[in-house]
């Protein structure tokens, strides 16, 4: 069985990058938790806000502020493996109703969250060639295959996207001759 666009094994540098990124993220989270602990001589407070709600920056005396920009879910396993050296780019992309990305591919992988709106993703990785994602869904795009994203809704589509690509390569390749043939 040929490998899917999501499971490409090339080199180990990204595994180390992901492990390092996870370690840094966990460290920041621990520092944020430690910085927000109440000292023994401070007056006790009652916080009724949900644990996932960020505290206003002005009210916090912590030197570290953590703001969750989005969260999404997917049922599929995720494995990111890109030939190194690797560049990581994070973007908020807004697509107006009726607009789209145009056909393109990537030299690496991206992980996105639909912040608002509906994202129609046309790609050969789906049995019928199309999948519609809604707010709160996560989208995983693999390398090399041709695809496009379209906003077929009546409100702006907002995506939070992290690209993990080969350093020096464009985030999106529009010269389709550089992409894998459809169905590969």
Globular, elongated, flat, extended or rod-shaped: what is the shape?
globular
Q: Roughly how many Å is the radius of gyration?
A: 20 Å
Low-confidence stretches: 1-55
* CATH superfamily caption: Jelly Rolls
CATH architecture annotation name: Sandwich
SSE string: HEEEEEEE
The counted number of beta strands is 7
Count of the domains: 1
**CATH class division:** Mainly Beta
Strand order of the largest sheet: 1-7-2-5
What share of residues is helical?
Answer: 10-25%
- Overall mean pLDDT: 73
Question: Total number of helical segments?
Answer: 1
- Main sheet attributes: strand count, strand direction, barrel closure: 4 strands, antiparallel
The CATH topology is: Jelly Rolls
User: How much β-strand is present in the residues?
Assistant: 15-25%
Secondary structure category: alpha+beta
End-to-end CA span: 11 Å
Furnish the topology, listing elements before pairings.
Elements: H1 13-35, E1 86-95, E2 109-116, E3 118-122, E4 130-134, E5 138-141, E6 148-150, E7 157-166
Antiparallel strand pairs: 1-7, 2-5, 2-7, 3-4, 3-6
Task: Give an overview in words.
This protein is of the alpha+beta class and 184 residues long. It has a single domain (13-178), classed as Sandwich (Jelly Rolls). 12% of the residues lie in helices and 24% in strands. A hairpin with a 7-residue loop joins strand 3 (118-122) and strand 4 (130-134). The longest helix is centred in the N-terminal third of the chain and has 23 residues, at 13-35.
């Amino acid at each position: 069985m040929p490998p899917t666009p999501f499971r490409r094994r090339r080199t180990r540098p990204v595994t180390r990058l992901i492990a390092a990124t996870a370690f840094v993220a966990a460290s920041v989270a621990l520092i944020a938790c430690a910085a927000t602990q109440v000292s023994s001589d401070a007056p006790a407070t009652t916080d009724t806000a949900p644990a996932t709600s960020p505290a206003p920056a002005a009210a916090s005396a912590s030197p570290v502020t953590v703001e969750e920009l989005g969260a999404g879910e997917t049922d599929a396993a995720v494995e990111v493996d890109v030939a190194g050296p690797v560049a990581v780019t994070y973007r908020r992309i807004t697509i107006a109703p009726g607009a789209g990305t145009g056909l393109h591919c990537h030299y690496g992988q991206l992980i996105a969250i639909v912040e608002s709106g509906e994202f129609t993703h046309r790609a050969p990785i789906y049995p019928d060639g199309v999948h519609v994602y809604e707010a709160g869904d996560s989208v995983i795009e693999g390398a090399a295959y041709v695809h496009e994203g379209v906003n077929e809704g009546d409100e702006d589509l907002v995506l939070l996207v992290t690209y993990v690509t080969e350093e020096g390569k464009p985030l999106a390749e529009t010269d389709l001759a550089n992409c894998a043939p459809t169905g590969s």
